[in-house]
Amino acid sequence: MQHTQQSNVKLNTLNQQSLPTLPADVDVPNYDRSSLTAGIVHIGVGGFHRAHQAMYVNELLKKPGSESWAICGVGLLEANRGLRDVLVKQDYLYSLTVRHPNGQIDHQVIGSMIDFLFAPENKKQVIDKLVNPDTKIVSLTITEGGYNFNPATGEFDFTNPEIIHDMANLQDPITAFGYITAALIQRKALGMKPFTIQSCDNIQHNGDMTRKMLLAFVSKIDAELGQWIAANVAFPNAMVDRITPLTTKADIEYVANAYNVNDEWPITCEAFTQWVIEDNFSDGRPALDTVGAQFVSDVTPFEKMKIRLLNAGHSVLGLLGSINGFATIDESVTDPLFAAYLRKFMDDEVTPLLDQLDGIDLTQYKDTLIERFANPNIKDSLARICLESSAKLPKFLIASINENIAQGRDTSLATLVIAAWCLYSDKRVDQQGNKLDINDQMAAQLHDYASKTEQDPLAFLQITDLFGELNNQANFCKDYRQAIATLYAPGSDIKTIMQARLQAKG
Q: For residues 310 and 297, what is the distance between their CA atoms, to the nearest angstrom?
């Protein structure tokens, strides 16, 4: 069904009042949002949260008896101000445009968020919300960097200035750890049950990581509180999956035409979605398994499969594709050479490291990944894929390199990706000389080390927080030197180098 917008008609804002005016093919919240309470407080309301967790909760709220599981969003950063303003204006509603590979489009309005607190304006309000007995789960999408761990050691980084501030000023927190700790102090003092802390980020053992980081932080402040958290707070591990590009002006214009309303921050995503959750909660949980999520006793093999294949696959295409001059994932993977390189990487350098999963056919899973990456209706930018690579690659890619080295396996395809990351960080242009959009908390340090590569081919590997002991692995270093030599050669062509690596792999 096509909808057209009259150019001279001023569109209504998407909000509760405008829902009845939406076209019939738009799936709108059919539940009484005024009767909901926020059992979930979510810190870090980005596009992925709104396409994934909030979507599942939206489906759950359609079922009677689920009214206590709505979401209150929290923005900790000044950068969240604009999103807060949009959501308030729209009664916390937003559109979700789901694009299938065959061109089918599903239209939804998500109503599971009923409030949004902007921490920089009222920190006490956020802490009070976390203390509120209605709050049963505090969930997180704060990106890999938000967990404040050293990528090489996996230990909590106590040198972070924001952490130093929070440890001394718990009533004036900055970080998620500061807010959560301030709230748990009060809940413990009041004799309340603690909330569950549920990471929804792409980190293997994300619940275990969150627990380890929070306990490290808390135990330096209050050892008794740390013991109480260790004994009483649940940190379920989870595997999350749904490709969700950044919102573009074209997405806003599409929704205006398709819905005949103005949504200032719509979300577009792929049709595929998966959420596997460890069944471990402090104070009850929503029945998410009735709307497509899966509760299991051990998430580990699911996490490893997804992180090492999908997330690492994204990074392979993102870094090599950026050097080549591609702009999006689908553009990269529809190039036969890039598709072959990715598949060989997944088959030879990842699959042997994975556990067999009941009900999962790894060959079919990899086929589906390539189909998802190639979805022409999801224009996922390589700039987004490469965002914060320093927080992602140690878990997604370098972990597989280390395991393969330990088992005496070849790592030549992944090694080229690390060398390409060096070139990407050093030159900051593609091979046609076009500037690359690099956004990474470690961008300056990455550039500093990478810029020394032409004097010392192994200079980039000296960032031991990222690479650990890779610079001491003789075979890896020999192959890495070769990759650097070919990439830095005058007139080098990434496709020629990739082809040579594939041929050598056999």
A: 22
| Sequence-separated (6 or more) residues with CB below 8 Å from residue 267 | 47, 50, 51, 94, 95, 96, 97, 244, 247, 251
Which H/E stretch holds residue 129? Answer: helix 123-131
pLDDT digits (tens, 9 = 90+) for 218-244: 999 999 999 999 999 999 999 999 999
**Cβ–Cβ contacts within 10 Å for residue 162, how many?**
13
> Is 75 strand, coil or helix?
strand
DSSP letter for each residue of 226-271: HHHHHHH-----EEEE---PPP-HHHHHHHHHHHSEE-SS-EEEES
Give 384-402 pLDDT, tens digit per residue: 999 999 989 998 999 999 9
* Residue among 312, 465, 299 at smallest CA distance from 403: 312
CB 178 within 8 A of CB 187: no
Q: Alpha carbon of 171 to those of 30, 179, 216, 278, 362: distances in Å?
A: 39, 8, 19, 32, 48
| Lowest mean pLDDT, pick from 134-143, 187-196, 300-309 | 300-309
User: Quick one: angle between helices 223-232 and 176-189, nearest 10?
Assistant: 90
Percentage of residues in the chain having pLDDT higher than 70: 98
Reported as a single tens digit per residue, the pLDDT across 413-469 is 999 999 999 999 999 999 999 999 999 999 999 999 999 999 999 999 999 999 999
Residue with tokens 């949002």: 33
What six digits make up the tokens of 232?
Answer: 């009483």
- Each residue's pLDDT tens digit, 311-365: 999 999 999 999 999 999 999 999 999 999 999 999 999 999 998 887 789 999 9
Give the three-class secondary structure for 144: helix
Own/partner pairs for 421-425, CB < 8 Å, 24+ apart?
421/319, 421/389, 421/393, 421/460, 422/450, 422/453, 422/460, 422/484, 422/487, 423/323, 423/450, 423/453, 423/484, 423/487, 423/488, 424/319, 424/322, 424/323, 424/386, 425/449, 425/450, 425/460
